[in-house]
Amino acid sequence: MGVSDIENRLAAAERALRTAAPHQLVDTVRRVVCGAYAAKAVDVLMADYGLTALRSVPVTAGPPKSLPMHGSPAGRAFGAQEPFVERHGGGLVRVHLPVTVRGDRLGVLSVTMDSADRAEECRAELAEIAEVLGHEMIVAERDTDVYLQARRTDRLTLAAEMQWQLLPGRSCARPEYALGGQLEPAYAVFGDNFDWSASADRLMLYITNGMGEGIEASLLTTLGINALRNARRAGLSIADQAALADQAVHAHYRGRAHLSVLLLDVDLSTGRLQVVDAGSPRMLRLRERNVTSVDLEAQLPLGMFEETDYVAQEFHVEPGDRLVFVSDGVHGVAAPGGETYGERALARAITSTSLLPAPEVPGAVLRELSGHRGSAVPDDDALVVCLDWFGRT
């Protein structure tokens, strides 16, 4: 098949997905792939909020199919972010392709074909279709709940619904860095949160450790994050962002509630890192298999007092550095015997996950944490964010 034929086929597939109704993307990609690539079956699987399962997007009545994230062929493609070919009887093969948008891992496109040769021939094209599908899903979520509903293995509390809607995503990647974050308990999280935004030369990152429980915690975090975004979008420095968000929180709560936030501003061209530590989130650095806690000047959480001034500290990150940020629901969690998790155990967990990509690290650390506390369900929010710094060449 000539290059022009491949280009025409891909263009037709992209056009079909872009013009499909938001709720019909799965039907459309199934029709396109079965028609143009002679596929026998096509499934779209979304990663659930807890990153424990891949769930099919329902197209008919009834519960969606669910596959384990760890141990399944589709989960392997999701974790490795590489196509994985699964062989079946009768010569059939199933190709699992990650559905990822700028590093944000959404799920997997699984395509069943009648031969390994045919699957290999079409794999690169199918990977491009999976990428287009991801972009269209992100756009479609403005108009339909189909893809958000498929991500749920359980009902979210209202507080968790509000927190997940605040997030920019769960992972992202650029040549200079890779980012990943995870919240627990995924379906009942209260006030912990993270946010990031990147421009041509800057990455800004917030790690939030919310105060309180339930709706009140979510409302406090929502106010704080949106105040920080408002100041950031006005072009202010992170010290001034913290000051204006502090005023917004204090104006509403008058000191009755406050918000702990760690603010970071990374210069993507030099690796210069400015940090404002306004509360309890911790930052640890993995450099050449050595984990150290980054000592920061503790400043007041947002909203405690009126018109607090904040000062940014300056550090440098080197290519190959990994920064891990945790809330007090991680470093302060207690085991059944009473001992806290602490920085030593956290350092071991970070070292043991050093070969994993950044988006996989938060989940792995949280699984390690659940073994320490002796129960699957935490008593407090737990948040882990991982930033891998590659540098700009």
Automatic annotation (TrEMBL):
<feature type="domain" description="PPM-type phosphatase">
    <location>
        <begin position="174"/>
        <end position="389"/>
    </location>
</feature>
<dbReference type="GO" id="GO:0016791">
    <property type="term" value="F:phosphatase activity"/>
</dbReference>
<protein>
    <submittedName>
        <fullName>Serine/threonine-protein phosphatase</fullName>
    </submittedName>
</protein>
<dbReference type="Pfam" id="PF07228">
    <property type="entry name" value="SpoIIE"/>
</dbReference>
<keyword id="KW-0378">Hydrolase</keyword>
<dbReference type="InterPro" id="IPR036457">
    <property type="entry name" value="PPM-type-like_dom_sf"/>
</dbReference>
<dbReference type="InterPro" id="IPR052016">
    <property type="entry name" value="Bact_Sigma-Reg"/>
</dbReference>
<dbReference type="InterPro" id="IPR001932">
    <property type="entry name" value="PPM-type_phosphatase-like_dom"/>
</dbReference>
